[in-house]
């Protein structure tokens, strides 16, 4: 028996390619006779295109075609109206694609796009989320995991009789996806078949959508994504630039590249909806919760049906006999929101964990102790036992490692006339999913194995983790296993999202390896000269109803300093302790957790999308206006995983880790700011302006 590969700190297999620049991303793909497409964005936020004048652009040397609603081929409808490119004269938001120019070079394409004349019949628009406005409605239930509302007990009565009550409103702004690699596509047609290189988190799903869109079988579509430079949800579903590339390639009979500019990402790539969240807590004087009410208001577009479900994590976190969660949304003339790292949990837990901190103050309880008193072995929403729930362990270990018991003494000793010091805590959670996937494994009979699955690596180290999983399932060393991913020609796989990639794909890989070993055993250990292959589909296995509630948990701790002259916040130290099942690879897991915590820091201190009410476009369209945390902002960060195995969630005993690092980080920082200043800030980001507006006397005066 070889030494187990799972749990070993093995370097990423693609590390050398990435640091030397030899890894080939979509933007690196070159094909003979490649043409380039540039889009014409709508200049109004609501209305109709009444005329398109392509003549001047077509007269430009090097222009091959101008595509618009008058000459674009008809596409089949999908569930995503944003993919219906050039299919209707209606304009639902500013920046919506209304035409595209195809040319010999990207420079010519962009110059000619500015020459296309568009006439509009503009209509009034509304682009700001405001709970005082009409039009709010409840989103539809999205399956058993996302009921729109839930209610248990009599919340209003419990709140009215509770000895301690907290009622507060928390707000978060729009958050934009600004992955290092912009969204791009290279598409070409050959004999009626479509091949695309795309920045996608799901080659299989993208293939199926493209097949339906163009009315061809999915076997006539191939989607390739060898390397993807970050996605965070924005690349989970196909985006409009993909359709433009495929339509343009069909129109000119040549391969065509599209690449979104940094400014276009705020429109086409989606964003996290802003939220307005009202939380009411009722408790005994000893901190035990009697009632929890969490109502979230969010925005959607006229073309999209996305809901953030920010109140959903409140259903799972703490025991309370009386609970309600509700979601309301309003359709505005804005680009479509979409998934962003930890959708729902990220903004929802900022509100809940801030409110829990306020409750701790009201009950004169330590914030860690308050959370421990409201821990629960069963899911308060479903009643099912948790597969594992080691939140209490995370809180206790984190408090010990962070020096939590000394926080008031440290605040007093280290706060001086220039700086105030504080420490904060917040819990984290993320639900666990496994989606059906297929995988195959081939052996040449000489100790070499090749795993194939249409998974994609968005920076998580999937190639390495899947090789480790396969090696242990095959009882061989990891060096004997090759993993091929990133191509829809391989067995279909679920998307890389919702912290489900490793558990979903890993389950399929384990089952394929088990099937291969069984087949070899039946053959007496003999493998034909041509080799031997086994493949599986986990659809039937995952159709079995769950007997447990499956979640990962964690605890985040932050130390902050607040400058009394400027109001500037610095975060010199953060600690996250997580219960994420068995760790497949400590190197890649730490990378995901620390990356999520930095993203949460950026959310807390820097990031804020802002839309112009008059013109309907985002002011924060690039990285000069939309601020993100940089290396200089990153503090000392420690990410610790406790010993845990969860074989209900996956046959490897592992859970997903991609998202939980961001959950709770912003709340921990906000709670630390309150500890330092004595003032509560309920809106993100924790900007200098907000600190000064909420500050105690002597700060910023």
What does this 3D model show about the protein?
This protein is of the alpha+beta class and 701 residues long. The strands form six sheets. A seven-stranded mixed beta sheet has the order 3-5-1-13-10-11-12. α16 crosses α17 (665-677). It is globular.
Compile the SSE list and pairings.
Blueprint (H helix, E strand, L loop, with lengths): L14 H6 L14 E7 L5 E7 L1 H4 L4 E6 L21 E2 L5 E7 L2 H8 L3 E6 L27 E3 L2 H7 L2 E9 L2 E2 L7 E7 L2 E6 L4 H12 L6 E4 L15 H13 L3 E4 L2 H7 L2 E2 L2 E9 L5 E13 L12 H4 L4 E11 L12 H18 L4 H7 L17 H12 L4 H8 L4 E13 L6 E6 L5 E4 L9 H13 L6 E4 L16 H22 L9 E6 L1 H4 L8 E13 L5 E11 L6 H20 L30 E6 L23 H13 L10 H7 L7
Parallel strand pairs: 1-13, 11-12, 16-17, 20-21, 24-25
Antiparallel strand pairs: 1-5, 2-4, 2-6, 3-5, 7-17, 8-15, 9-14, 10-11, 10-13, 15-16, 18-23, 19-20, 19-22, 23-24
